[in-house]
Amino acid sequence: MTDSTLGFLRRCAPFDQLPEALLQYCQRHLSLHYLCQDNVLDVVPRDKPQLYIIKQGVFDLTGSNGQLIERLEPGDLFGYPSLMTKRAITNSLKVLQDGFLFALGQAEFDYLCQQDRQFADYFARALGDRLLTETRRDISTDWTQLAIADIIERPLISLDGQQSMADAALLMTEQKVSCLLICEQEELVGIVTDRDIRSRVVAARQSFDLPVRQFMTSPVINIDSQAPLFDAMQLMTSHNVHHVAVVSGNRPLGVITATDLMRQQRSEPLFLINLIRKAESAEQLAAIAKQVPEHLNQFANRVVDVRLVGDMLATFTDAFNIQLIRLYLREQGPAPCAFVWLTFGSQARRDQSLSSDQDNGLLVDDSADDSAMQWFADMADFVCQGLAACGLSLCKGNIMASNPELRLPLGAWLKKFQHWTLEPEPQALLRSNIFFDRRMLYGDKRLFEQFDKQIAHLATNQIFLANLAANAADLAVPIGLFNRFRTHRIGEHREVLDIKKSAIAIINDIVRIHALHNEIRPCSTPQRLQVLADNPAMNNKDCLDLLAAWRFLVQLRLQHQLGQAEPDNLIAPDALDSLARRQLKTAFRLIKDAQEGLALKFSRGAF
Question: What pairing do the DSSP bridges indicate for beta strands 243-248 and 222-224?
């Protein structure tokens, strides 16, 4: 090797930090190779782990499922995961531009790690970053990740809005379908289902000669053709529909139905949700709820991303909650005025765990009088007790609609939020971490929009955000000197850490503050991060790193809880395999970095 090799290494991390003697060692043991697509397996053999350093050229590193892991350019490194974990090589290299790379063998790599702590730490961190986002199972077996376009079998069946209901019924009979999309000038304007024909035409004794436009549902609930099936299931559940229009851009492609989903997922989650919707009493709901743990376990065994179990649990909770409200309305008649059932915290974010309790409230129209408020008090008691019977325990902090302080008219809710933002004492800041994650579950959309819009504006108060940021930045992350876990004895548990309190909740806090600052209305942590990633106010890589950390932590917690009779959040690092421990340390390091960034951005205005 020539002096130019030394010069190249001095510009590449982590070689640029090596002392001269070790740099000379590298120079003697590196081998230089020309790489093109024809000789990839000769230069980068699968049976010989090595560290590779790109000198010239452009290459794509892809996983076993063909997904892009990283684009490699001069100065980039690859190959170290197999060197460090001794796992078989499963990734592949695709040559985009021919070039040269250096290779360093296993023994030489190990020697450098033993001789220089900074060098070893660099690759430990790099491995953690890589493994944090690595998929461990074959995604092709997971129905939740299939694109909707992959399962649509029928071409678009549509009708013009000016055609008659008789034409619609005839076409549905001929095509053996239960709904039709209504399109005008290739634009989706409505949908008609067989239920619409029964309830809006036959039962209402309307003429079949009247135009479809008069009876169709508009606007149409729709979803992009490339969205995963799990999103379609959530959409059907949240809107209580059995048909969703599939679109590409503004162009309608067809319909996905509940039957399509049940066929793909072997009928489990959607079947249970349909049972919930058909329940005739709170007692029936409580009996159905006993099936939830088994459904969640089966679901977890069939999906690649165990994090979706939390999403699925929120879907079940939503369904129980909504059906309890409907049962009350069926028994007591229409509400005396407009209202919104609010859900807060983990249910609002859709990241519930098996140890979550209920956090909810009631928003009612300002016109509500004393008798109306009593009506809503009775409804709140019925629903909250019904949820408790279904396994969602009563909130120990009394964050429930059954609490009169959380069952308020619009004006009173706004005053409460205004007080929290203008006088951010510790208790107000604590409550903000719950109540600023909010979602409408049932009720009047216009009333919720009034509430939500004004709350989002109140939350931009800079003193309020600065105090929230100061609190979040001071929360202890359980990792200390020399990258060691800080564990504690908690109750009967020895050497554990609380993964919710010490990690997941801190990420939720950090992301919430950035979202409130930018008036981002969705409240799930992944949604917020995806919006923030496109926002110049927050670094795109920081968003992706936090999202990877959050997903790993949530998945680790759920895997832990699925094996417990009484689920908790207490993780024993020593019980994890070495791979999971590395990932956990990397996640904690990312959280600490995010805390520092948060403090720099917001805390100057705190008091």
Answer: parallel
Q: Tell me the per-residue pLDDT of 32-47, one tens digit each, with 9 for 90 and over.
A: 999 999 999 999 998 8
The Cα 593–Cα 181 span in angstroms is 50
What spatial distance separates the first Cα and last Cα of the chain, rounded to whole Å?
A: 59
pLDDT computed for residue 231 by the predictor: 82
Residue among 223, 233, 17 nearest 115 (CA): 17
Which one has a higher pLDDT value, 304 or 8? 8
Residue 363 has pLDDT above 80, yes or no: yes
Do the Cβ atoms of 242 and 258 come closer than 8 Å? yes
Q: What is the pLDDT of residue 426?
A: 82
DSSP 3-state of 336: coil
CA distance 76 to 27: 17
Q: Which two tokens stand for residue 463?
A: 């003193």
Give the three-class secondary structure for 150.
helix
User: What would the pLDDT profile of 595-604 be if each residue is shown by its tens digit?
Assistant: 999 998 886 6
HEC readout, 157-215: CEECCCCEHHHHHHHHHHHCCCEEEEEECCEEEEEEEHHHHHHHHHCCCCCCCCEHHHC
- Exposed / middle / buried, residue 143 (Cβ in 10 Å: 0-12, 13-18, 19+): middle
Instruction: Tell me the longest C-alpha to C-alpha distance in the chain.
Output: 93
Which pLDDT band holds residue 139 (cuts at 50, 70, 90)? very low
Six-digit token string for 293: 């743990």
Please, which residues bridge with residue 409 across strands? Answer: 364
**Tokens 């020399």 sit on residue:** 482
Length of the chain equals 607
Instruction: Decide: 522 and 528 in contact? Cβ < 8 Å.
Output: yes
Burial of 602 (0-12, 13-18, 19+ CB in 10 A): buried
pTM (2 decimals)? 0.67
Alpha-carbon span 213 to 447, nearest angstrom: 28
Check whether 304 has a pLDDT greater than 70: no
**Predicted confidence (pLDDT) per residue in 282-300, tens digit:** 999 999 998 888 777 777 7
Q: Can you tell me the distance from the alpha carbon of 547 to that of 555, in angstroms, rounded to the nearest whole number?
A: 12
Cα 68 to Cα 94, 116, 230, 545, 552, distances in angstroms: 10, 32, 23, 16, 19
